[in-house]
Amino acid sequence: MKAKTTPMNDAELLAAMRQGKAEQAFTQLYRQLPDVMTMVRTHGGRRSDAHDLFQDALVIIHEKAQDPGFMFVGSLAAYLYGICRNLWLAELRAKGRSENHIADLSSTQDDLQLTTENESLNQLAERAFAALGAKCRDLLTRFYLNNESLAAIGKAFGYSGEGATKTRKYKCLEQAREKYRALLSNHQTLHSHA
Amino acid sequence: MRDQLHLMELVDHYLDGTMNSTDRMAFEDRLRNSKELQELVEDQQRLRRAAQRSPARASAKKARRNYQLAKSAPWLGLGAAVLIGITAALLLSNPFDPSGPRDGMVLIDGVYQPVLPDTTGTGLEPFVLTIDPEKDTTLVTPNGIVLDIPQGAFVDSLGAAITTSVRITLLEALDPLDIMKAGLSTMSGDTLLETSGMFYLDAQANGMKVKIDPAKSLTAMVPAVGTKEDMQLYEGVKRDDGVIDWRHPKPLKRSLVPVDITTLNFYPPGYETKLAELGKDVTNKEFKDSLYYSFCYTATPPTESALTTIDHEIAGAWPTVAAITMNPGPPEASMDPINVDTAIKITDMLDDTSYQGTGIDPAKIKTIWNARFNNTNLATKEFEQRLAYIFRTCDNALLDVYVNNLDKDLYWCDSVATLMRSEPMSMFLSPAYGRVDLPKHAADRLRTFYENNSRAEAEAIRKTQEKFWNEQWKQDVKSDAKRADHVTAESVREGELFEKEFAANLDTVYKQLGYKRVQMPRAAWVVPVTSPGWWNVDKAVIQATTTRSSMSYTDPNSGKTATLTYTPLIVEVVDRASYDELVVYLIPNQLNSYQRMKEGKGGFTERLNSIFTYHLFCLAMKGKQQFAFNTTLNGQSTVTASLEPVDENALRQMLRTKGQLETKLLDESRYLNWMVADKARTQANAARIELRQALVPIVFPCAVNSTVVPYGAE
Is residue A177 within 8 Å of residue A187, measured between CB atoms? Predict the structure, then answer.
């Protein structure tokens, strides 16, 4: 049996997220799930809603953590909880759910509202991205996350030149955008009927 | 297309902050005034962010798994069985709620009941429902347990089927927390079970406990995290110490009956209907298959083939878009616009990313629609039904779930599929189906076959396609060259013929005027002419020859008159419309050359020079059959030509007297033959492309107006 490791403090959690050890950090942060679960379930949500929300919040925190100037008030756990609450609030509003829940959850923390604003659109973009073929996903991740050069990527994919690599990249991006636009119009239709 | 890609590149520069200040200001100016550009920038920003987020998303999923694993059994090694507890508590009570059961899905209303002795202290709310045991009933509980109760499932203590209404009481504890809170154990004897949830079932009729007919067992489907295997149904038996011991594990299933897989229909919905609409032979499976499979796409990186070369030359490589060159290809080959279009179409068609994710990969279907998969879950009507819906989702991962888990129950796959895409897959959750029994090693073997083969199939189909279209492209280039050569040869020949006729006309006129004609160099028409008389004569003759009209010239010195006479000829070909190609040649016997007659509305026309005798030669193609007509003209103004089928020997006979012309005219006949075949080839290619384009919305339903997008399966 592996010895129990000491939990990371907030600074270590952020460092882990910056150093590509997100899984470890997330696993620890998952200890906050029961609180989020209670919040969601007492405000008109289901267990699965809480799970989804929590995943989204982790991704947002991870993104925030990449910014060296990232500041938050209180603990990372509280920040995470705050994000979840705002996400759930946005979800309730979008679905036109009970005002009581909304009033109850409404946050005064502007910073968090900004953080989670338009998050539903970001998630649509993520879904559009996830719907791409593996090759396109890989290609775009190398460009936008790893900042690899055209030449290096072209070589890795066996393309004949930078022109070809560039074409592939933008074709992939365009495909993603088409999917995103389709999801978006679907999303808007749903919400206009909600 | 290229503009759009270029614009996206600019947006990237803008977002990266790598634009110089002039460009940036210009861009921002444009941005302020264009809503479309604003949308593009916003979309691109989100998509870039999505790309950056994807590894974090994957980590979050892994973390969730880690967390659940640690939570459900922190002290337990892996490999524990999954438990679904069922306890048939048989208690005395009065029938409850006579309203109620109906066929199909029934959502149970939460009805609070006094806690039954067995469940005392669990704190779980029981759900109660009364059903008609003489009908099939499927229940879905608020937490998503699907319970299928076949007609006649309940029997009394003597084994006789219950006919009066049966009261069902259900308690659910699906979350480990609920299980703990309810104080339920997860022990089976000395073994600790990893639980996927428990439920408690009580069934009574007329206040008496009822039994379940062993031949008609109930089927329960408990929502499960997709990766758990070997779900079993345990019966909870209360021990003397009050703790429930889970015993008698049983697999949950309803059997599947395999049929011959080739009798099933694995085409995308609407495929055959569309083919029938297009007038294709839908009874020909070989044709339907090969056409459908030709749509496959592949995820392998493109190779350095000729087609990938065009792809990058045409669409990519801005700002230095070079002339389109092919590799390999004849160095002199320049593409005409038609060929560029075709090449783009073909490239699009073969582009392995263009349809990816917009439909189920036909290569995958090709792999599974194969006798190897007989006697598996796939060779069932039930799978056929699911596949029709999988096609509509365009989600290849859904198909993979079914194919990669042949050793699991179909409802296991259904529940994973539902997690991935509850719409429409949740409709298959009920009734829950088992599997076609298959030894594990066979399932493994088939899975490997599927994984390797669908890739290999895709690659093979792609290569075949690529080879075919490559070959077609080469032929297009050659055929363009051949046509161009023929046109050149024809104009050269006509030019020579003109010169010959002009010379002959001059001879005739000079003779009539009594002049001696000096052979003039070709350039004589442009050098200063010293003799006005000759010049006038020459001018009149050249005009007559050019316009092919009669002339009369009287020499002012001698008073002699010379004439040239051109008389019109009309050739009508019997059944003109029935020929695919038709050419009519006039052969002036004295000139050792021939000219092609022009076709007008009423037939072929030309004016004949009276100083020559002419021969008329018609050549036509109807399909692959060649037809010809041959006659000597004797001053008729109209000829009706009735062509006869000929082979090369007959043609040779016909042209034997034509000396050197024989070879040339035989060449013409071969050219015509080739042209008809080549036309048929290009038309067939166009039809192929057209047919494929008509089928794209069926085979790749998400390619246009996509609203169903797969989201990464958990």
Answer: no
Tens-place pLDDT, residues B652-694 = 888 877 667 788 888 888 888 888 888 888 888 888 888 888 8
Q: Which residues contact B486 (CB under 8 A, 6 or more apart)?
A: B671
* B670-676 LR contacts (CB < 8 Å, sep 24+): B671/B482, B671/B486, B672/B581, B672/B583, B672/B619, B672/B620, B672/B621, B672/B626, B673/B621, B673/B624, B673/B626, B674/B482, B675/B483, B675/B581, B675/B621, B676/B580, B676/B581, B676/B621, B676/B623, B676/B624
Which one of A117, A143, A162 terminates a domain?
A117
Q: Does the distance separating the beta carbons of A22 and B317 come in below 8 Å?
A: no
User: What does the alpha-carbon distance between residue A20 and residue A24 come to, in Å, rounded to a whole number?
Assistant: 9
User: How would you classify the pairing of strands B166-173 and B194-205?
Assistant: antiparallel
- Contact across the interface for B707 and A175, Cβ inside 8 Å: no
CB of A161 within 8 Å of a chain B CB? The answer is yes
The model carries a pTM of 0.42
Residues of A with Cβ-Cβ distance to B56 under 8 angstroms: 17, 22, 58-59, 62-63
Average pLDDT in the B319-339 region?
32
Residues 169-188 of B with CB under 8 A from A: 175, 177
- Average pLDDT score over chain B: 73
pLDDT in tens, B610-648: 889 898 999 998 888 899 998 888 888 899 999 999 988
Please judge whether A122 and B56 are an interchain contact, meaning their C-beta atoms are less than 8 angstroms apart. Answer: no
Q: How many CB pairs under 8 A join A and B?
A: 187
Is pLDDT of B452 > 90? no
Instruction: Answer whether B51 touches A (CB < 8 Å).
Output: yes
Residues whose CB is less than 8 angstroms from the CB of residue B369 and which lie 6 or more positions away in sequence, other chains included:
B261, B262, B264, B266
What percentage of chain B reaches a pLDDT higher than 70? Answer: 67
Q: Taking residues B288-305, report their average pLDDT.
A: 61
The answer, yes or no, to whether residue B114 has pLDDT greater than 80, is no
Q: Are residue A139 and residue A90 in the same domain, yes or no?
A: no
ipTM over 0.95: no
By the CB < 8 Å criterion, does A175 face chain B?
A: yes
End residue of a domain, out of A92, A117, A142: A117
pLDDT at A118: 76
A73-85 mean pLDDT: 85
Residue-level pLDDT at A191: 60
Beta strands B581-588 and B614-622 are antiparallel
Residue A20 shares a structural domain with residue A69: yes
A143 shares a domain with A89: no
Same domain, A92 and A126: no
- For A3-42, the pLDDT digits (tens) are 345 778 888 899 899 888 888 899 889 888 888 888 888 8
pLDDT score at B104? 31
> Average pLDDT, stretch B450-472?
79
Give the domain range for residue A158.
Answer: 120-194
Say which of B5, B50, B63 has its CB closest to residue A125: B50
CB contact under 8 A, B312 and A27: no
Instruction: Output DSSP code: residue B596.
Output: E
Do A140 and A104 fall into the same domain?
A: no
For residue B319, the chain A residue with the least C-alpha distance is A163
CATH top-level class for B566-659? mainly beta
Q: Does residue A128 share a domain with residue A103?
A: no
Residue A104 contacts B, CB cutoff 8 Å: no
A71 touches chain B (CB under 8 A): no
Are A102 and A129 in a shared domain? no
Looking up residue A185, the CATH number of its domain turns out to be 1.10.10.10
Query: Chain A contact for B43, CB < 8 A?
Result: yes
Residue B357's pLDDT is 67
Indicate if A5 and A48 belong to the same structural domain: yes
Q: In this structure, what are the phi and psi dihedrals at residue B20, rounded to the nearest 5 degrees?
A: -75, 170
Interface membership of A7 toward B (CB under 8 Å): no
